[in-house]
Amino acid sequence: MLRRTLLATLLIATPVLAQTSAVMAQPIPVGSVEILSGPAAAYGIAIKSGMELALDEVNAKGVLGGRKIALIVEDSAGQKDQGLNAARKLIGRDKVIAIIGPTLSTEMFAIGPVVNERKIPIIGTSTTATGVTAIGDYVFRTSLPESDVLPVTLKAAMARGVKTIALMYANDEAFAKSGFEVMKATADKVGLKIVAIETFGSKDSDFSAQLTKIKALKPDAIGLSALVEPTAGVLLQARQLGFGKETQFIGGNGANSPKLGEIAGPAADGLIVGSPWFIAKKDQVNADFVAAFRARFNKDPDQFAAQSYDALKILAAAIDRAGAADSEKVRDALLKTDYSGVMGAFQFTPGRDPASTSGVVVLTMQGGKFVVLE
Ligand code: 1QQ
Predict the structure, then answer these.
(1) Is 35 close to ligand 1, i.e. is its CB under 6 Å away?
(2) Which of 135, 177, 211, 251 could lock onto 139 through a cystine, CB 3.0 to 4.6 A?
(3) What pTM, to 2 d.p., does this model score?
(4) Helix (H, G, I), strand (E, B) or coil at 292
(5) Which CATH code fits 147-275+361-372?
């Protein structure tokens, strides 16, 4: 009797065991769409590096009792169509259970609705425009929206004596437009006088008409909402036109890349920008991250790398909590995130935005590097 039971158990259990170990051996496909080429590639390359570092650490242990995550990163080149095709390929062919990215809010507004419709969680790590997570229930972000960061930056400028401001923004870009709207609303609210509003295109190289007009009005500050290349272009030309230290330049999230210093050099010195992270953050998690990043990539991480490092770990932890490589369960598990990473403590609001907005620091560029504004 005992023998028969044992035999029956073995007959039933063997295929189950074989199947289980076959599943265990399969990596879990996770996709990412980032800008790896073209003018805004500095953002996406930093994001990819942050994810790769996190992936090594996650895969050393594995998720769901030892399965590895296979991260498939596609290049959007900053083009909505290319990004959308990349997302379709990741979902249709690679069968990814979640997507990290895309880099820009402009891209998220094109890609997010499609991924959301397929009920795949998509997590922006750098998308800061108003309305990103309103795309749908599967759209998350770990990046602080501009509406949380810019008021801190503008108040810091006011504390340094700024009373009047001119606003300049790229009017062909969702992030830049949203950042401008936040700057304008904040200025109106806190009593910062707006003396001019000027626009340009992200691909423009001549900003002299706008800057000449602004110069005549002598504002204390210029608030710039654009991606890093046009921001650098404006700064370089402003210096040529004679704008000096008397004018406080204020950037948004687009200015948060060290690429700004690489392109603009000393012209970027003195610009201030708000960020949820800075390299010299004293806690151990950040110190370990910075050291590991330097060891692996031979350069300093930036804010975008820090954000994506945390995001991949947040996703891995959600897969573990979900108990299965299942998009629906992972989405629900993401909502229960309670994580402590390089950006500090992290939870999502029910609307899938970062819950804590308290960690914003104001940085200033000095000699091509961001340091905390004293
Ligand atoms: C957005 C941004 C960009 C500056 C990310 C690189 O904040 O597009 O929302």
Answers:
(1) no
(2) 135
(3) 0.94
(4) helix
(5) 3.40.50.2300
